[in-house]
Amino acid sequence: MTIQTSKLSDPTVRAFVEAVNAHDRDSFMSVLAPGATMADDGTDRDLTDWVDREIFFSNGHLDVDNESNQGRDLLASYRNDTYGEMRTRWHFEVEDDGRISRFETGQA
């Protein structure tokens, strides 16, 4: 059963998911801390290139199925126009200022 985005526990992760699903790149980038990093399937990637290619240029969308670690770990169905739909995991490191300094994703 999908968790409504508005019900996600962590407000920063909630803003991240909302920005992805609204295709709002500016809001997405504002949730990230300066110098934020990310990894996909265990490999560090160039964040800007990955975000554009995997989310914003390919109509990415997250449907969260489960959250843990106080809302900073997600299991979700992720889909985009390039790869279709897949089951994914997401982990977020959130700084004291409420911005994401790192996120990791990959197939679950």
Quick overview:
This protein has 108 residues and is an alpha+beta fold. Helices cover 27% and strands 44% of the residues.
Structural class: alpha+beta
Total beta strand runs: 6
**Residues in helix, %:** 25-40%
Main β-sheet: number of strands, strand sense, barrel status? 6 strands, mixed
Q: How large, in whole angstroms, is the Cα Rg?
A: 12 Å
With strands numbered from the N-terminus, the spatial order across the biggest sheet is: 2-1-6-5-4-3
The low-confidence runs, each spanning 5 or more residues with pLDDT under 50, are none
Textual characterization of the structure:
- The chain is of the alpha+beta class and 108 residues long.
- 27% of the residues lie in helices and 44% in strands.
- It contains three helices and six strands; from the N terminus they run ααββαββββ.
- The protein has helices at 11-22, 25-31, 47-56, and strands at residues 32-40, 43-45, 61-68, 73-80, 84-94, 100-107.
- It has a six-stranded mixed beta sheet with strand order 2-1-6-5-4-3.
- A hairpin with a 2-residue loop joins β1 and β2 (43-45).
- The radius of gyration is 12 Å and the shape is globular.
List its salient traits:
single chain, 108 residues, alpha+beta, six-stranded mixed β-sheet, 6 strands, globular
